[in-house]
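input
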Amino acid sequence: MQRLLPHYRTGFFRKFIQKRPCSEIIYGQPFKAESLKNSTEVSGDKFIFRKNFYFGNSGKIFISDIYTDLFKSRPDVVISVFNVGNLNIYILFLLRYFLKYKIILWSFGYDPVKGFNPEKNFADKLRLKLSEKADAVLFYWEKGKKEIESFTKNSGHFFVAPNTLDTDRQFSLKYKFDETGIENLKKELKVNEKFHFIYTGRLLKDKQVDLLLKAFKKLEEINPDCRLSIIGNGSEYNYLKKLSEDLKAVNIYFLGEILDEETAGKWIYISDAYVMPGRLGLSVVHSFCFGTPVISQKKNSHYHGEGIGYIKEGVNGFLASDGNVNEITEIMNRIISDKELSEKLKHNAFETAKNDCSVDKMLDGFDSAINYVMKN
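output
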């Protein structure tokens, strides 16, 4: 049960269904004000749309029209997206006694903005209690699991399913691009500059794309043969477009939202680095799948998403000091000035994707949790 089904999740769920053909994925519509949308590439009777009902202005509190399906299908296991504003969870706990299913909660682990402190925050206290009462809990990454474990002795039912994409699909695209070659793809995409940097993702405040624009403007003054492409949309789009104009940057291009996997993959593949100064998530995996290193910033321990766990400083990417625009510029310039470093970063980024971020590892995490609850 998902609140919604964004395009980056569909590949994983298709593989999950292939492995467990009796599964069904139930999802609803996004909150009216949010930029994240449902995938348009969902088909077949395994993906079931049911309406969400939202309360308040945040979109964080909702309930879904799922209960007819629940009584009809009588599942052995229910895996639910886990946040304390998901009112379905409380009903699922009540119905568990009558329908005899097992509950697995699937979650990042904690609020990445506020951290986790159940001793001072009621929502965190509730999250901890639900985590203890569930039959199993699946975390996006090891850090999320450890954060909750530090407040409870009841953690034998905690598992990690490393959050990732359908890496098999991304790898197949990369191999296809390898045959075409970077220069041919640049011609196809009409990129004439020697060096190329990319940002893909929602244009939100916590992504701090404004710092990237300022850093690139400084890079452009050092080396005019560079281009920055911005792929995405969101609440910050107009502000960032105007900022780019105010900076008088010559080679910053806003391409809008690109949801086609192959087209988006081409833009990442031709890039010397992917740069997201703000909160990192699955964009790290996406970039690494195409052998593209990542540049971001060092933040406090609760800021970044799970993507930060894949970055190894100087090996497959770099983390600048928080808020240091000049350092971001220096890192970008260092990468394009040192061919040997650039090749090393690209090689290691792809190796990280293959060894640490594979979709099979995520599926294994789900298998571990499902096998555990069925055994018990």
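quick obs: The first helix runs from residue 7 to 19.
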